[in-house]
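Thread: "does anyone have the structure for this chain?"

Original post by V.I.:
We have the sequence but no experimental structure in hand. Need at least a predicted one for the grant figures.
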Amino acid sequence: GIRKVEKIVRINKFDIELPPTDHLLFLIYEDKPGVVGAVGNILGASKINIANMQVARDKAGGEALMALTVDSAIPADVAAKIAAGIGARVSRSVSLQS
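Reply from O.Q.:
Generated one for you, tokens below.
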């Protein structure tokens, strides 16, 4: 883009604009009310700060993707709790630190 900043712009069929950072979380789930709040509450209770969040969906009530950048690594048990809490089909926590 204009600012020449690297961004993740597509994951599977979903268009997003997310800067790559050290810690990311990707969730695929059924689009429904309350999901963003549930994810934020679980991460907040775990003292993990959300730096950026993008949500994309194929249609209202259809399949959705949530992509987050966070300030610290997400432990596997927290990622599993989030996935179970929102009924995510796919949950992947990624750390790009060397």
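V.I.: this helps a lot. The longest helix spans residues 35-45.
O.Q.: and Strands lie at 8-11, 14-18, 23-30, 50-57, 63-70, 90-95.
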